[in-house]
């Protein structure tokens, strides 16, 4: 019996529809799967565009260096044919064949599917889950220099490798196990010890008029400076390199390094921020295992009920917040606790404006309340604002959301899907008790989604789901 193939994926977002026609793969692979190809190609080039512009953020808020000479992917039907051959038709976790002897790298994702896989929301969640899984293998070593040093980052490395100019992908639905297998094949293999791309500075905005022409052995390279996901990427009709492309011969212009991008920081935290203290926090013995466990229990419970779609979005009579397909389970982090405690010890009157991690703060007017009760009331206060002031149904974090009265920004950080580590501190001050929690990776980033919505919690988890939450990364 034939395995059902994922076809007809998604009408692309308006930003993709209005892009130049060179962005799309030609429909020449002989079937009706064009929607799938467009979505996969768009997701890959969006990632490469963000990398070229220096927008890829690590857990601590630092960013990978950008590039003036990174190329957008072309779609290759020959690589798609290899992806078809590599698909594990039983949706097992190993590709059917190893393509490395052919000089091609490959990524495989197995995604659990609940419901009809032909429905657009489920198909969208499936593709997003594959890309999310591969991109999540970014390694902290790349912050120092973009050299491929660890095969554990292979899925991410395959997607950003500058010697790969094309890809081809295939998806199959295994009805017996209600799973989907997606394989993408790339035109080259990253080499251990070699650069994944040629980097510039952290505030790089991608290619310029002449930088793409510095790369030899590609046909008619041209920089895309049009606004959109491809901005900052070079383009070429060349699909497969027959020789290793040398680094650009002309040195890139120097530019000043920036700690954070203005597009991913909020005005309130970037203009009136106080720097966090760099001194060792006082030994207050405030945090105990009981308090730490309570923090995790309360956060994960609230993330669960949001992911299940049972939390009202705003005032009485409003519909509930939509279900979440990619909400991580949180765990406690002692390094974040040290940061939070250091700031709590300052007895400041407001947030710190820290950019490297997310933050929620709370002042209890009591100086006699127990630390345990102060932490409980802080979390209740942060979360309860959603019942007074809702979020847009797309669950997208925007300037408008942040700047409205009684903005639910503490709630959005509590349920930010990609935040999976938390640490808190508490301090008795002269007229109040101050509670601070720090989150990593940070949330509340402009124009990013608080979480991905869908009809099935955990739709973007790989194999496990606990209380509607995905297992957190091990790192």
From TrEMBL:
Residues 1-19 form the signal peptide. Residues 245-288 are annotated as: Disordered. Residues 290-447 form the SCP domain. SMART domains: SCP. This is SCP domain-containing protein. GO terms for cellular component: extracellular region. Pfam families: CAP. Residues 245-284 have a biased composition (Low complexity). The keyword Transport does not apply. InterPro entries: Allrgn_V5/Tpx1_CS, CAP_dom, CAP_sf, CRISP-related. Keywords: Signal.
